[in-house]
Amino acid sequence: METIKCDVCIVGGGPAGCTTALYTSRSALRTVIVDKNPDIGALAVTGLIANYPGVKGDGSGKELLDMMRGQAEEYGADYVKAQVFMIGVDDDEEDEDGGVPRRMVYTPDAVYSAKSIVLATGAMGRPPGFKGEGEYLGKGVSYCATCDGAFYVGEEVAVVGVGKEAVDEALYLTKFAKTVHWLTQGEGPTDEDAMELKGKENVKHWPKTRLVEVLGDGMEVKGVNVKVFGNDSEQVIDVTGCFIYVAGSKPITDFIQSSKIKLNPDGGVWVDEEMSTTVPGVYAIGDIRNTPFKQVVVAASDGCVAAMAIEKYIKGRKKVRVDWVHE
Ligand SMILES: Cc1cc2nc3c(=O)[nH]c(=O)nc-3n(C[C@H](O)[C@H](O)[C@H](O)COP(=O)(O)OP(=O)(O)OC[C@H]3O[C@@H](n4cnc5c(N)ncnc54)[C@H](O)[C@@H]3O)c2cc1C
Any idea where the FAD/NAD(P)-binding domain is (predicted)? Predict the structure, then answer.
């Protein structure tokens, strides 16, 4: 597996992550944004954004986000589309130039070794909610096709959800699975990607179908119990994998497996006034903090604070360096 060294690795490419990237790349820190999908975060799915200062109120959230990402890239930040499944903050790797210890960010294709990492995955997550989902998580239930898809070569799998994420991940699974059973509560989306998915030979679309329960033998998934709208009885589809993409409103922290990073009782990541978590060099910004102030301008502001604090941390300064001096 390739290891990529950088100064700052940002997990999540929403307004919080893109703002940090803008500032750190302008400070000549080598910055990489690792983002699961630019179309699925809270800003990306916001239809109209009318309260971001300085921007006309007739554009979509996605347009604003594309501008933010583009601006960070113009200043040198690299954008990588990948899902982070784990971070490493426990076993510090010494930096060869004697600086701060390195932190690790793991994706299915590469590991990022960074002097500082930023957690900016937002709050569109949810706890396991379907019957059997929690019990079989990691034993056939997955939220990451790029991480787990290759385990299902020639197998029957189910994909649950109607969003862009569900469609993209189902398309990815068609490369491996014998059949991808795509369950959508309504008729399902009709955009270009969804139509491509529906047209695949190894996809069986189940419209107006609700997942009732993930079934297994105690060890691994053996099927899903579904209810088709209009039918009285439930029906079992034999599958060995069940990929669930249903958005919620819980901070996305499942990839933070270290107890060194303190979470608040509400599930948000605890930070100090510089957006630093309880692990030096690891910052958390935006909706992942789960404050009541979930707004784009606040996420961007968090991103700026973290970037300036990171520059101080990596350079070993006593004070934050400002671009201007107030006389
Ligand atoms: C429907 C809706 C309407 C809203 N309307 C407004 C509004 O009008 N005005 C306003 O100011 N705010 C609004 N908000 C709130 C605003 O969108 C959020 O506060 C803001 O987007 C938070 O930014 P963020 O960067 O923290 O997270 P997000 O925008 O959610 O971005 C998180 C990013 O992290 C990525 N990610 C998630 N998991 C992983 C992983 N494991 N690995 C790598 N990447 C990952 C996602 O793909 C996503 O790109 C709205 C929110 C919603 C849901």
Answer: 7-303
Query: The domain 2-125+249-315: what is its CATH number?
Result: 3.50.50.60
CATH topology of domain 141-244: FAD/NAD(P)-binding domain (3.50.50)
Ligand 1 center from residue 61 Cα (angstroms): 9
Fold: same for 2-125+249-315 and 141-244: yes
151 close to 41: Cβ distance less than 8 angstroms: no
Output the CA 321–ligand 1 centroid distance in Å: 29
Residue pair 41/14 in contact by the 8 Å Cβ criterion? yes
Distance 240 CA to ligand 1 centre (A): 32
Low-confidence ranges of the chain (pLDDT < 50): none
Locate the domains of the chain by residue range: 2-125+249-315, 141-244
pLDDT digits over 38-69, tens only?
999 999 999 999 999 999 989 999 999 999 99
Ligand 1 pocket, Cβ-based, cut-off 6 angstroms: 11-17, 34-38, 40-43, 45-46, 49, 51, 83-84, 120-122, 124, 252, 255, 286-288, 294-297, 299
How far is residue 316's CA from residue 240's CA, in Å, rounded to a whole number? 51
- What are 214-224's pLDDT values in tens digits? 999 999 999 99
